[in-house]
Design brief:
The complex is a heterodimer of chains A (about 400) and B (about 350). By secondary structure, chain A is of the alpha/beta class. Chain A is built from twelve helices and twelve strands. Chain B is an alpha/beta fold and about 350 residues long. The chains are: A alpha/beta (about 400), B alpha/beta (about 350).
């Protein structure tokens, strides 16, 4: 009914065997710096094929969001972007705004984290969807655009779509708004959808339905998906391949099974071990990664993970390691000069690489704390009896 | 390799004695006033009849999604927002209805730890002053003694006492949360109410703070009410868990029991919705998707307030549905083995 894009040839499944091999998005040594000092992204490369889902995972400040904003050409003027971003073979970096506008929405669409700020509060939902449709298809009639808007809302699971299309964003709950954002993103059958923390602002039961909506959108359009999140659980359930970011660089990439079951970069091992697990009954002490993530303005020399790494040796601070191929069922890369030592291992037990944190509280501290508590209680009781005595005196 | 298992408290279940905290039928309503005459025209029933106990050295997890009233419960228990009705007893002493003046000497016994370590510390105060403040207010210590105590408190939470002269902005999120914990421990409380204490932290940092909280309660014999939306964190730290929905507790059980044998449909949906960091499991997991949105707490559905989103309700016969619509399910055992608030509770296994 609307603008038939070239995504008609849809892959049957997103499994590794059925994957279409045409490259949709090629990101090559992408770097982003703000001013001379802050290097938010330092040489990230990835490729995305039709129908494939790539997860980008990392903690706050690892550069995962900036990477995708750079791909979309949405960064501020003060950002210096280098490297190359090719969409279907055409370079996007340096393209003018007009050319980018043709790609945005139709070629590559984006879903942002906060659905309240990505929808315009003064326009009805329907208008915001039809606007996206009409930008890319000027000949589209109002009636057809509206019908398509209703259809899109139905796909993402909004009940009574026919009525709801005339609502304003504030009449929707957070989860429903995010579904509207997904509907807008898939409106023009994009080839690639980039979702930046699409469920972080939502509750878990709502998250589950929104993730279903994203899957539905992906199935409907056959789009490739880049899913950016800090939630390893969401990554595990949604993606085919994972890219782990740390300090503005990709430190490990591979199939989701390889990265989760056979991590070869100490940071990934640490990240997986530091999670409390819901699926085991024994209470095992959590293994935090010591220290703090590096400041982007003041990167340590060599591997940025060195100060926190249990495997670090002197050599680690000499040069930043490139992604190197390691073992796995599919191509699997890790940026660690000691990843050899992690080879052959499956599913690390807690404490295997990072060592168990020593008992945090020295006994003498506990003892003096308890002694003080007793003393305080005694003095408090004394005061209370004094108060009582005073009160009975005044009353008599 | 050997994992450190925390089994110290496992045998403590049968002998629990008197609870430290006993909350009975707690209600907290926020009035909705008319625009013109400011007359009360309704109530937002944020907490609507919540009862639970916390025993010495125990951690009670309070979970639920945003708007379910878990934080308001925490605040009403501490009398920071006076309860509308009900009773809160701390070591046998009634707190509801006490004036601010009467509350003040009692406050040292129970403290609140806030979620956002960036907002809960005054940026213009040195860490020393922040941690010392409760000790100064309650006139517990001064001078040299004060400095010694602050130093010890900082060490207790794993911070360097030499950093006491620094300001909060010089610390990372995890360290700030430790400062907040040190402040809450200053007066030797017996109960801490932790309101989403690790939600604002990155996972690699979060683990350290969870370990600290675990150590503190074992070493110092503290009781916690641990409020959070992240069930995996709550599971890790809690002995018992209460699940809240729309101002009410819908299920309460020992941690193992709740995860192995959830009986309330909402708990089941909640457990099934949590993504696990395990690709193989995620591919085969059954997910219960809830329809619709959280109803407004100003106008909750009649009878069982979960029925509007309940997947079980839809499969029931008409007479059974009528029961859900007209009759509010009380917390009770219903042959399940732990308390739940569903007329048609049945155990669902293998949701994780």
């Amino acid at each position: 009914m609307v603008a038939v894009s070239d995504s008609d040839v849809r892959p049957e499944a997103s499994g590794p065997g059925a994957r279409d091999e045409t490259l949709l998005l090629e990101v090559d040594s992408l770097s982003v710096s703000f001013s001379a000092k802050i290097h938010a992204v330092r040489g990230v490369s990835y490729q995305l094929r039709r129908g494939e889902t790539l997860g980008i995972v990392g903690e706050s400040g690892s550069g995962k969001s900036v990477t995708s904003l750079a791909v979309m050409g949405l960064l501020d003027k003060n950002a210096r972007v280098r490297g190359s971003v090719k969409f279907k073979g055409r370079e996007l970096l340096g393209a003018n705004d007009k050319a980018m506008s043709r790609v945005r929405g139709k070629g590559v669409a984006m879903i942002f984290q906060d659905p309240m700020t990505s929808l315009d509060p003064v326009y009805k939902i329907g208008r915001q969807i039809t606007e996206t449709l009409k930008v890319h298809d000027r000949k589209l009639s109002r009636r057809a655009a509206r019908a398509r808007a209703v259809e899109l809302l139905e796909i993402v699971g909004i009940p009574n779509a026919r009525q709801r299309v005339d609502n304003f964003p504030h009449e929707f709950s957070g989860g429903m708004r995010q579904r509207v954002v997904i509907a807008i993103a898939m409106a023009n059958n994009p080839d690639v959808i980039i979702a930046d923390e699409p469920t972080t602002a939502l509750d878990v039961t709502v998250q589950a339905t929104v993730l279903e909506a994203i899957k539905a959108a992906q199935q409907e359009t056959g789009a490739a998906l880049v899913l950016i999140t800090h939630d390893l659980g969401v990554i595990a359930g949604m993606v085919d391949r994972v890219l782990v970011m740390y300090g503005g660089r990709a430190v490990e990439t591979g199939s989701v099974d390889d990265v989760f079951y056979r991590p070869r970069m100490p940071y990934t091992v640490g990240l997986l071990n530091s999670l409390p697990r819901m699926d085991t009954d024994e209470r095992v002490r959590l293994i935090p990664i010591g220290g703090t993530p590096p400041s982007l303005a003041n990167m340590p020399p060599g591997c940025p993970f060195t100060p926190r790494c249990p495997l670090a040796i002197d050599e680690c601070s000499n040069a930043e390691p490139e992604l190197m191929e390691t073992d796995g069922s599919e191509p699997h890369f890790a940026a660690c000069i000691r990843s050899e030592e992690l080879r052959g291992q499956d599913r690390y037990q807690a404490g295997e690489v990072f060592g168990v944190e020593p008992e945090a509280i020295p006994t003498e501290l506990v003892q003096s704390f308890e002694a003080e508590a007793l003393a305080d209680q005694a003095s408090l009781a004394e005061e209370e009896t004094k108060d009582e005595a005073q009160r009975s005196e005044t009353s008599s | 390799m050997t994992a450190v298992e925390l089994e110290k408290h496992d045998e403590s279940t049968p002998e629990r004695g008197e609870p430290v905290l006993r909350v009975t039928d707690l209600e907290k309503y926020f009035p909705i006033r008319s625009r013109l005459l400011k007359r009360t025209i309704g109530n937002v029933k944020a907490v609507d009849g919540v009862s639970f106990e916390v025993y010495g050295g125990e951690v009670l997890g309070l979970v639920g999604e945003s708007g379910c009233g878990k934080s308001t419960t925490g605040r009403a228990v501490l009398n920071l927002q006076p309860a509308t009705a009900g009773s809160v007893q701390f070591e046998g002493r009634e707190l509801v209805g006490l004036s601010r003046r009467k509350m003040r000497p009692l406050r040292r016994n129970f403290q609140l730890v806030f979620q956002d370590p960036y907002a809960s510390l005054d940026p213009r105060m040195q860490v020393h002053a922040i941690v010392a403040e409760p000790l100064v207010i309650h006139k517990v210590a001064h001078g040299k003694e004060l400095r010694k105590r602050v130093g010890e408190l900082l060490q207790l939470v794993g911070l360097n006492p030499e950093h006491a002269s620094r300001y909060p902005h010089e610390f990372s999120g995890g360290q700030r949360q430790r400062i907040g914990i040190a402040r809450s421990l200053a007066l030797h409380p017996r109960l801490l109410i932790l309101d989403e204490p690790v939600s604002a932290l990155d996972v690699s940092i979060q683990a350290g703070v969870i370990n600290l909280l675990d150590d503190l309660r074992h070493e110092l014999g503290l009781s916690y009410v641990f409020i959070a939306h992240d069930l995996s964190v709550v599971k890790h730290i809690s002995d018992r868990i209460a699940v809240m929905y729309l101002g009410k507790i819908v299920e309460i059980a020992d941690t193992k029991e709740l995860f192995a044998r959830p009986a309330h449909p909402y708990t089941q949906a909640l457990l099934s919705a949590i993504p696990l960091p395990d690709p193989e499991r995620e591919r085969t997991r059954r997910r219960i998707l809830l329809e619709g949105d959280l109803p407004s707490p100003a106008n909750p559905p009649s009878g069982c307030n979960f029925r509007t989103r309940c997947f079980k309700f839809q499969t029931l016969g008409e007479s059974d549905q009528a029961k859900c619509i007209s009759e509010e399910p009380e917390l009770g055992d219903r042959g399940i083995g732990h308390e739940n608030a569903c007329h048609f509770a049945t155990v669902e296994q293998a949701l994780i």
